Amino acid sequence: MKSKRIACIAMAGLMAASLAGCGGSDSDNKDTAEATKATTEAAGSDSADDTTADAEGIKSYADIQLGTDFTDLSAEIKFYNNRTDMDSDDYGGKNWKQYLEDFNKEYPNIKVDVITDTNYADDALTHLQSGNYETVMCIPAVDMADLSTYFMPFGDYDTMSSLVNYSNRWLYQGQVYGVPLTATTQGIVYNKKVFADAGVTDVPKTPEEFIAALKAIKEKNPKCIPLYTNYAAGWTMGAWDDYISITATGDATYKNQKLAHTKDPFKNYGDDTHAYAVYKILYDAVSQGLTEEDYSTTDWESSKGMLNNGEIGCMVLGSWSYPQMEAGGPNADDIGYIPFPISVNGKQYASSGADYCYGINVNASDEEKQAALVFVKWMTEKSGYAYNEDSLALVPGSESKISFDGVDFFADEPALEGEEDYLNQLNSESELNVSNGGNDKIQAIIEHAANGDMSFDDIMAEWNQKWSDAQESLGIEVTEK
Q1: In this structure, are residues 93 and 327 in contact, taking their beta carbons and an 8 Å threshold?
Q2: What is the mean pLDDT of the chain?
């Protein structure tokens, strides 16, 4: 049954052509163009004596003292992730080779082979299904119930939440199975100069204001693409799903506790909130000619330079994209990040949470698990990776580069006990895959808007029907209107 479930998820991901940083959820594949598989080997010494975990077994994440424990541990582990851009010496920030060099200054005998993949979201599921997967990997879209089949727990939630923010991303039955590489918020990455030149000096706070800003950009500079969809990449489309919960409702319980029980979640609430308002921004922008002329020819890699150079006004992507756009050209100071243009009763909200998370192979040897725990803790607490990649603060009390003035940040509350799999089940049954690689449905919005062959309200009605049918089929009670 477990194999069947992950096979279904893998197939859905492949059909949809789906982090951030290594991160997720808005993403599932946030890096460079052609698939690469680059292995970076950390330098080590074979002469040091091996050190194993203490007599009571593997020392936990919480109990490891960095710089003191396991400095003589000799082990080799593999780390599989989606950050192919960090393989390059030309990467605008610190690359994998540099991080591993710093790691080996403290742990000279732990050899970390970094393996990257541009098609990570799909290929990671294939790795898991094969049973032959890396020691550490970014956890892909697996069922919560299957976490313990593939990954070892880091510890209980009370303990881990005191050490790592957003540690509830892969929380199941009280155990934490994933530690975030980065934590992101959801907004819009934009070119400040393009907006200013078009006379847009106030940050748009409503869909109407945002569409008006895009029109001003097009009028001022017809050669500039006001909103770039990145349709062809596929995985970039799923980013739109990430705005329908906290950002569009102001409710931290909406996604994991209420959505599954909501009747017609894609209906028009009449106040420019909820999922309807989020997706309508995209439909309206495309139908009014405020996006690229031919959505099928968009290119993810070149879009970074285009935004940096002012050929694009903005893109709807998680904050993980911010440093990549800064590194896309010589105009890093022109890049900015603003909240998504929806207000709830006059107030703006932004969701915050883990992007991709480190998971440790449950089938690894004890020596490998111990080395993996040391590596993950070092990356989280000492490497500076989260800060360098413009993440929200991961370690309580640490600093972050991103802040939205006047916007309240919330993290999605976990599902209620016994309902952890409801959203996954509904996504599978309805084939809508909300916040789970549902890229094709967002691409369909662009297609229908461009072709004018289906109204936005008809699209939403179709989605509502699929959701209702799935609720009925699964026996999930409808308690929210």
Answers
A1: yes
A2: 88
